[in-house]
Write a structure and sequence with these properties.
The complex is a heterodimer.
Chain A (H helix, E strand, L loop, with lengths): L7 E6 L2 E6 L4 H7 L10 E3 L4 E3 L8 E4 L6 E2 L10 E3 L3 H16 L15 H8 L16 E3 L3 E4 L8 H9 L6 E3 L6 E3 L16 H5 L5 E3 L3 H8 L5 E6 L1 H4 L15 H11 L3 E4 H24 L9 E2 L4 H10 L13 H17 L6 E7 L3 H6 L5 E2 L2 E2 L3 E4 H10 L21 H4 L6 H15 L17 E8 L2 E9 L1 H12 L7 E5 L18 H17 L9 H11 L5 H7 L18
Parallel strand pairs in A: 1-7, 13-14, 13-16, 15-22, 16-19, 21-22
Antiparallel strand pairs in A: 1-2, 3-4, 5-6, 5-7, 8-9, 9-12, 10-11, 17-18, 20-21
Helix pairs in contact in A: 9-11, 9-15
Chain B lengths: L5 E6 L2 H5 L2 H14 L6 E6 L11 E4 L3 E3 L7 H11 L8 E2 L6 E2 L6 H4 L17 H6 L4 H9 L2 H11 L11 H10 L6 E6 L8 H8 L1 H15 L3 E7 L3 H16 L15 E7 L8 H8 L23 E5 H13 L1 H5 L9 E8 L5 E6 L4 H8 L9 E6 L5 E3 L10 H6 L8 E6 L4 H15 L5 H18 L5 H17 L3 H5 L2 H9 L1 H10 L13 E3 L9 H5 L5 E2 L7 E2 L9 H5 L5 E3 L1
Parallel strand pairs in B: 1-2, 7-8, 7-10, 8-9, 11-15
Antiparallel strand pairs in B: 1-3, 3-4, 5-6, 11-12, 13-14, 13-15, 16-19, 17-18
Helix pairs in contact in B: 6-10, 6-13, 7-8, 9-10, 9-11, 10-13, 17-18, 17-21, 18-19, 19-21, 21-22
Chain lengths: 598, 597
């Protein structure tokens, strides 16, 4: 302080003279001075390269002296000596009128809306003290669209365009865009087709950022409750690594709280017969995928020209959908290993069911996932035996939280308990599957030791961690340098795939996750409403949970060793090939019409 | 060139062509050949004369005889009478609506007397498909001058000093716009012509492109040279096929003459033009939306800054000017900024083209010096109100403008005066309304247009205009309340205050201006449930005066819904519940017994 900085400018905001850096928006300048201007369409995940500021909702307008009309605070940059007023009658009336307009074209079914209580529009209505809507008239009506993962109720769309930004800019999927004009403008797949007919990957990031109830998950809690109440069924549950570091948020716990123990207790209280862990099958995935990587590498180093290098991970179902849709010529590049969710289902309904003498039809496998694409994944035909799916229902972290609330369980007060054996025993390597870089780090921990036959000199590979969109590192496998690439966000995945297609990729192995930060910010997680600190807290918690575990390498998991010994034989062996590996399909559905052709 | 004695100029604009002017051209050519006059009389297809309502127009030079509403079968008579016998065909001459007299030539027509044609200088004079005719009228001289001088800033200064402002509606100083674009360094810049004319009823840009396409090519090349752009793009509506065709021909000709392409006139400056077609969205006239549309994105505006001069087409510095603005450029350079700035008012220099329409005698395209009064335009050039009715209001600026009343008739027209009066220049639509126009209905009409044309991006425009339209519906159907009027006022103000782009910010103007000038008319709809202009169907009541009704039963027999009851020779009565207000009864009544209330 006291120094004069060329890059600082003086402005007056609500009669207070303050200094801000050049290029600061009015919104940010206000926030830094404890003035909270309301916003709606504006969305930013700081540090994640995700920004949506179309300046279109006009909720954040403020008065700027000398300006004819009101200025949107989210995109208007401060200029020297700008005089800003954020709460004059003119401003408050304008904001209120705009909000009333939005509400006038929005169903008033808040009580039964999936977003009730977590809705940014509802919050604004509360904040503005809306008691009546002065403007009424025709309401938009669009068809309801259900896909295996996502429910679209565009009657509730407020055209904030956040979903469009995620789908087009962050994921480069392009399933959603604004169509029509004027009052009938809405975000939709082209020609108002169903989402299932598009190249949607079901990553659910549109759902994660939707401020209202226009986009939500397909809810399977009812089906789970019915299964739990069916005495003829043995209901087995698996929980993904990212769930344990986020579910606490739903119950008022601080972001980043590791609630593994409470979650296991809650699941038992809900009536699940066996409470297992997807981390266990994550360890199994490492055994299979790691072995596959080493096999491919061996051939590659021996000069085999047909072997595909790099190997790409295949745990993320949105990523799988993405390359099936967009890179159908490269289906042999990703690992054939099933995802941990599906490996778990396959093992539960074979190995475990046989052990316990439960008929396949009598077992219901439920997965709790941070993800919406998992709902689609478990419905894929190749993951069914005679029509019976390996995983019956995949519910999100949010859905599990709602079940817990429904069952009168005081989550925060629950005692901790452990997962059941044998499909509940896991290692730190399984836990870090929940964030970007984790799968490949887990693979390195195991592949190093299998390849070299030596103990790996370290467990924590900091060089593989981080939240940058694309990362790379070279790991020394005792003299053999292995180049590793990591990407999260499908736009980044696209870049790496295009490099491979052009023959320019230097990597031996690549890990891809579709969501920002990986599963910790999956489409099924508690909503962060643009606060990236929450994601960082979850990220830290994942590595903390890893550190807390006594075993941190997948191949040292006793239950996994036991599984191979008594059931599977060896990784990538015949039985594993049958139960734990899959294949991919060409889903290219883009019409390529050359309009210039005559 | 043959030494022609006469020239027959036939309008080849879209309007006249639709009334068979093409056939007229052919007929003249055939007849002249038959009569062996084709070496003495030249037939030229020109651009628009502006007097579209009386088209097809045939003008004879050198005597300026101005034939209106000519039919293909009239050609023979014109040749035989006018050229062979030396007598004008009186029945085809323009008739003055006031004096009811034929006017022998265009110099004596009130429609042209007060006009000053700069942007339209070549429209109706030259064959737009012949570059030589353009060159003969000083075409490309300005470009040659600019390239020879080789000092972009000097040219920018000329445009700045001329006081030329954007003719597309914004009124931003053109020279300043060029200067800003010229100062942003980039490996590629673009100069863009906005030919996405979207105002209902406005057609000056189309007329210029159809009648004088080379003037736009020349001006864009000059602009490109000034800002440092080697590429020009014309964003033109696909609904303007003739303008597109003429522009394409002109571009080809200019390339052949070395006036487009590499090393123009040996200056080392490269410049070429491309066309981009719009699908006819009003909002794409907004420059950021226009640029997005050209890039293949959804045609919707984005927040400025960044301005196109910073980040425009393909994120490169771009300069967007409207057709009419460009049309002024070559003349300013040829005749000097001093000449241009001597025309007009203090802050609005030069002329403005208006599309004059509505309840007026002379409908058409006119170009007048800034500072002319609305009275001169409406009552002199426009020939006054049709059928002797009373003037009520004039809407300027299209759907973004406002309605001005009699008290503004003597206001000099310029950018700032129109805004001060609650309207705007816009792109130059001017619709005159007489006493039979219902102002709430007029406001509703414009709102309907903006609702249709809103891109739907920002909430106030997407939902607000829809609600405003619905409220006006309530008023015009007699269901409105005084509270609705208050809501209309507030909503209009908020939309103006909060909408993202010019379309939204100006969309409530027709409502606000009619509310302020015709408040009583709104109140009449609400409180008395009456439409003073008798236009709002829902508020009309057909009443049979029992004193005058002879009981002839004609009305009852003709009523399509059986709403009229009565017995022969006794007064009839209309059941208002059933009446659909079609007006048939009134038309059929021989005794004038049925009136509208």
């Amino acid at each position: 302080m006291g120094e004069t900085n060329m890059d600082m400018i003086k402005i007056t905001i609500d009669n207070k003279v303050v200094e801000v850096a050049k290029g600061t928006t009015i919104l940010k300048a206000a926030k830094d001075n404890n003035i909270n201007i309301p916003t709606l369409c504006y969305f930013e995940l700081a540090g994640m390269d995700i920004v949506n500021k179309p300046g279109s909702c006009r909720i954040c307008v403020v008065e700027v002296e000398g300006r004819r009309n009101l200025a949107p605070a989210c995109i208007t940059e401060c200029t020297p000596d700008m005089v800003i007023k954020t709460n004059t009658t003119r401003v408050l009336n304008a904001r209120r009128t705009v909000l009333e307009l939005l509400l006038s074209d929005h169903p008033s079914d808040c009580l039964v809306c999936p977003k009730s209580g977590d809705c940014e529009l509802q919050n604004l209505a509360i904040r503005f003290g809306i008691r009546e809507i002065n403007y009424v008239g025709e309401q938009s009506t669009y068809k309801q669209d259900d896909s295996p993962s996502i429910h679209r109720d565009m009657n509730k769309c407020i055209m904030c365009r956040r979903c469009e930004m995620m789908c087009n800019e962050f994921q480069t999927v392009g399933a959603l865009s604004a169509i029509n004009r004027g009052f009938t403008a809405v975000v939709s797949p082209a020609f108002e087709e169903d989402l299932t007919l598009t190249s949607c990957t079901f990553c659910g990031q549109c759902v994660a950022v939707c401020p209202v109830g226009a986009l939500s998950e397909i809810n399977h809690t009812g089906k789970v409750l019915r299964a739990l109440n069916d005495p003829t069924k043995t209901v087995v549950v698996q929980t993904a690594p990212a769930v344990r570091v986020a579910i606490g948020e739903e119950f008022g716990m601080a972001p980043g709280t590791i609630a593994t123990g409470q979650m296991a207790t809650a699941l038992r209280k809900l009536g699940f017969d066996y409470v297992f862990d997807t981390d266990w099958s994550a360890d199994l995935t490492i055994m299979e995928e790691g072995t596959e990587l080493l096999n491919r590498l061996k051939k590659f180093l021996a000069g085999d020209k047909d072997v595909k290098i790099p190997l790409m991970t295949s745990c993320c179902p949105a990523w799988v959908n993405f390359f099936e849709h967009n890179f159908p010529d490269m289906l042999d590049i990703p690992s054939t290993a099933k995802s941990p969710q599906q490996m778990f289902g396959a093992m539960a309904k074979s190995y475990f069911a046989e052990k316990k003498n439960i008929k396949r039809e009598d077992m219901v496998v439920v997965s709790v996932m941070p993800c919406l694409a998992k709902k689609y994944e478990c419905s894929r035909d190749e993951f069914k035996v005679n029509g019976n799916p390996d995983v019956d229902y995949s519910i999100t972290t949010r859905e599990l939280a709602s079940l817990i609330k429904l069952a009168n369980i005081d989550f925060a007060a629950l005692p901790e308990s452990k997962f059941d054996d044998p499909l509940g025993e896991s290692t730190g390597a399984g836990v870090i599957f929940g964030t970007t870089g984790g799968v490949i780090e887990a693979a390195v921990r195991t592949a190093y030791e299998i390849h070299t036959g030596k103990k790996c000199p370290k467990i924590d590979f900091e060089e593989l961690r981080g939240l940058e969109g694309i990362r790379s590192a070279t790991i020394d496998f005792d003299g053999l340098p292995i180049n590793i690439g990591i990407a999260h966000g499908l736009k980044n995945a696209r870049k790496l795939l295009e490099e491979i297609r052009e023959g320019k990729s230097k990597f031996h192995a690549i890990e891809i996750m579709a969501c920002p930060g990986g599963c910790i910010d999956g489409g099924g997680q508690p909503r962060h409403h643009g606060n990236s600190e929450i994601i960082k807290a979850r990220w830290n918690a994942i590595y903390e949970a890893d550190k807390n575990l006594p075993i941190r390498k997948s191949h040292e998991n006793p239950s996994i060793i036991q599984l191979y010994k008594e059931y599977l034989g060896e990784p990538c062996g015949e039985k594993s090939h049958h139960l734990l590996h899959t294949h991919y399909f060409n889903k290219h559905n883009v019409f390529e019409v050359d309009l210039n052709k005559k | 060139m043959a030494n022609y004695k006469y020239h027959i100029l036939i309008c080849g604009g879209t309007g006249c062509r639709a009334s068979k002017s093409g056939e007229i051209v052919q007929n003249f050519k055939n007849i002249l050949k038959q009569e062996n006059l084709d070496n003495e009389i030249q037939v030229i297809t020109t651009g628009c004369f502006g007097f579209c309502e009386k088209g097809p127009i045939v003008k004879i030079l050198p005597d300026n005889t101005f034939y209106t509403q000519v039919k293909p079968e009239d050609c023979e008579e014109i040749v035989k009478e006018h050229f062979i016998k030396g007598r004008k065909v009186t029945r085809l001459l323009y008739t003055d609506p006031e004096k009811k007299e034929h006017v022998s030539d265009s110099k004596h027509m009130n429609f042209y007397k007060k006009q000053m044609r700069i942007a339209l200088r070549n429209c109706g004079f030259i064959n737009p498909e012949n570059i030589d005719e353009y060159i003969a009228r000083d075409g490309y001289a300005a470009l040659a001058k600019v390239l020879e001088q080789n000092d972009p800033q000097a040219t920018i200064d000329i445009i700045k000093k001329s006081g030329l402002r954007g003719r597309g509606g914004g009124g931003f100083p053109t020279g300043l716009k060029w200067e800003i674009a010229s100062k942003n360094p980039a490996d590629q810049k673009y100069i863009i012509c906005n030919a996405d004319e979207g105002d209902p009823g406005a057609f000056m840009d189309r007329s210029i492109l159809e009648g004088d396409p080379h003037s736009i090519i020349e001006a864009m090349t000059i602009g490109g040279f000034c800002i440092g752009a080697t590429k020009g793009l014309v964003y033109i509506r696909a609904e303007y096929p003739l303008a597109i065709q003429r522009l394409q021909i002109a571009i080809e000709q200019a390339r052949e003459y070395g006036l487009l392409g590499k090393d123009l006139l040996g200056s080392g400056f490269d410049f070429d033009l491309e066309l981009r077609y719009g699908a006819g969205a009003f909002v794409c006239g907004e420059e950021t939306a226009l640029i997005h549309s050209m890039e293949g994105q959804r045609g919707e505006p984005t927040f400025k800054p960044p301005f196109p001069a910073q980040e425009g087409y393909l994120k490169k510095p771009s300069n967007v000017n409207n057709v009419e603005t460009f049309a002024n450029i070559p003349v300013i350079i040829n005749k000097g900024w001093e000449w241009f700035s001597s025309i007009g008012t203090e802050k609005s220099k030069g002329t403005k083209v208006f599309a004059l329409a509505g309840q007026i005698n002379n409908v058409g395209l006119i170009e007048v010096p800034m500072g002319i009064t609305l009275r001169e335009v409406i009552f002199e050039i426009g020939g006054g109100i049709k059928n002797g009715k009373k003037f009520k209001a004039v809407q300027t600026g299209g759907p973004s403008g406002g309605c001005l009343t009699e008290e503004f008739l003597d206001t000099p027209i310029d950018y700032d005066n129109l805004i001060a009066a609650g309207s705007m220049m816009g792109s130059g639509g001017m619709i005159v309304m007489d006493e039979t126009s219902c102002m709430p209905a007029v406001a509703r009409f414009y709102l309907d247009f903006t609702c249709e044309e809103s891109c739907g991006k920002c909430s106030p425009c997407r939902v607000g205009n829809k609600r405003l339209c619905e409220l006006l519906d309530k008023i015009t159907s007699g269901k409105g309340t005084m509270e609705d009027l208050e809501n209309i006022k507030n909503l209009s103000q908020v939309i103006k205050d909060t909408a993202l782009c010019g379309l939204g910010q100006t969309s409530p103007n027709p409502v606000l201006s009619t509310i302020s000038h015709f408040w009583d008319e709104y109140v009449a709809h609400v409180v008395d449930k009456k439409c003073p202009a008798g236009q709002c169907k829902a508020l009309k009541q057909y009443i049979i005066d029992p004193e005058k009704c002879k009981g002839c039963t004609a009305c009852a027999r003709n009523c399509p819904v059986g709403a009229i009851k009565g017995t022969v020779k006794n007064p009839h009565e209309i059941n208002q519940e059933l009446c659909i207000k079609c007006g048939t009864c009134q038309a059929k009544c021989k005794f004038g017994a049925i009136s509208v209330q």
